[in-house]
Amino acid sequence: MTLPDGPRVALLAGVVYAGVAGGVVLAFDALAPTLAAPVLEASAVLSAFVVGASTWYVVVERADERTVFRGAVGGLLTGSLSHFTMWLFYGVALTPELFYVAPLFLTTGVPSLLVFGVVTVPLATATGAAVAVVESRTNESRAGVPDR
């Protein structure tokens, strides 16, 4: 059984965002090895996947328009919202009690976005636009090819 095009492409976009986030985390970790713990790094990659796939599906696939602009908007949202969900995942990994996680999620998401968003938001925006270009070219090359 294969997934329909919409969810399949959204999951693919999530994987691409997660890969880019992994590269960014490794770069930051190389600059300051004590900056990020492995749990924080895993939270960043998971957040990029979840938010990236979700925003791609909502912004691009549900509109049924795989344009570069929509891909860039999906990337912009992914790069911005991932900071908040990363801290949510990190907090849940440290303690499953939501009472302690909510302040971490709210108080660290904004500074994280302001400090690291300078890198992550433009990179995610460019990634979204690139995925849209690749996907539109893939669809053009598949035009006229019958489904199996």
Radius of gyration computed on alpha carbons: 17 Å
Q: What percentage of residues falls in helices of 4 or more residues? A: over 70%
Net shape? globular
Strand fraction: under 5%
- The helix-and-strand class reads mainly alpha
> What is the end-to-end distance?
12 Å
Succession of helices and strands: HHHH
- Total count of domains: 1
The helix tally amounts to: 4
Count all strands and give the number: 0
Low-pLDDT sequence parts:
none
- Average pLDDT, rounded to a whole number, is 83
Task: Describe the main β-sheet briefly.
Answer: none
Structure overview:
By secondary structure, the chain is mainly α. The chain has one domain (5-138). It is 83% helix and 0% strand. The chain has four helices and no strands. Helix 1 (5-31) crosses helix 4 (98-142), helix 2 (38-61) packs antiparallel against helix 3 (68-94) and helix 3 packs antiparallel against helix 4. The protein is globular, with a radius of gyration of 17 Å. The model has no long low-confidence stretch (mean pLDDT 83). The chain crosses the membrane at residues 9-28, 40-60, 72-93, 113-134. Keywords: Membrane, Transmembrane, Transmembrane helix.
List the helices and strands and how they pair.
Blueprint lengths: L4 H27 L6 H24 L6 H27 L3 H45 L6
Task: Give a brief rundown of this model.
Keywords: Membrane, Transmembrane, Transmembrane helix. The chain crosses the membrane at residues 9-28, 40-60, 72-93, 113-134. The chain is an all-alpha fold and 148 residues long.
